[in-house]
Amino acid sequence: MSWFAAQSEGMDPQELSRALGRYLRAARVDRALDGLAGPFGCRRFLVRFALRSGKVRLESVEAVPLGWGGGPPPADPRGDRRAELERCLTMLQRNMSTGPRWDRGAIAYLRDAQGRTEIIPTFDEDADLVVLDDLSAPGPPGHPLEDPGYGELLALHEAKMGELHLRSRQVAEDWDWWEVRDDRLLVLHYDEAQTERRLRCLTLATFEPAKGRFTWRTDGALFPELPFQPGSFAATLDAAVELCLLTTARIGGRWLLVQEVEDGGAQLLVGVLEG
Fold this sequence. Notes:
Largest sheet: 7 strands, antiparallel
Number of strands: 11
Order of helices and strands: HHHEEHEEHHHEEEEEHEE
Distance between the termini: 73 Å
Helix content: 25-40%
CATH architecture of the largest domain: 2-Layer Sandwich
Number of domains: 2
Shape: elongated
């Protein structure tokens, strides 16, 4: 008899599934898995674990790259995210020790490009039967920043992006206030001198830290590749800046303006074409 069948004897299997979901949330296993998966991108991986000397230890994280990008979780060089997942799985095991007990398990984690996730826990005999290849594929489409061609573009423009990044950091923000007119003209105002400086520019995008959301603000796609198509997608500020540095390099810009424009911390990214 399978673990799930044995545990659901005398109760509704759907109620057992709901109870497992409550156990996972109470031990914050779902959040630890989100952390392991990184802030954005398609994910499809299988975490195997077992109880060892009173603590749950990860045995493996199984994943293969997806054809449209993503699949495995990002690198965890210090092991912090894996350690947090082990801590939460240990809490899960202790919480379930008086109920549906288990000694080993496997959790499948699936996330599509829009950030919709599915977590599928299995334990003991059931976990032994779970195979990565049997899991559904989250996509296509993939996440724009995981498109296989995006890495090639970054490598191609790496030197120019480095120059832009350095020049952007060296810009002396000595103006009193600034504005962008018609998405094409950056005006820097110097109140004490009663002067202003005008620079050609192109409004590129906004980034909302609270939502982790990047949104293009250009009039149509600047380039044909997937990351430059109009719309919005999940990102980090570092990823947003990297994409806009690449864009500024490709349009022949001189530096990238990144400025907060709202109380909520929303950032405006503007490619400056001169100066």
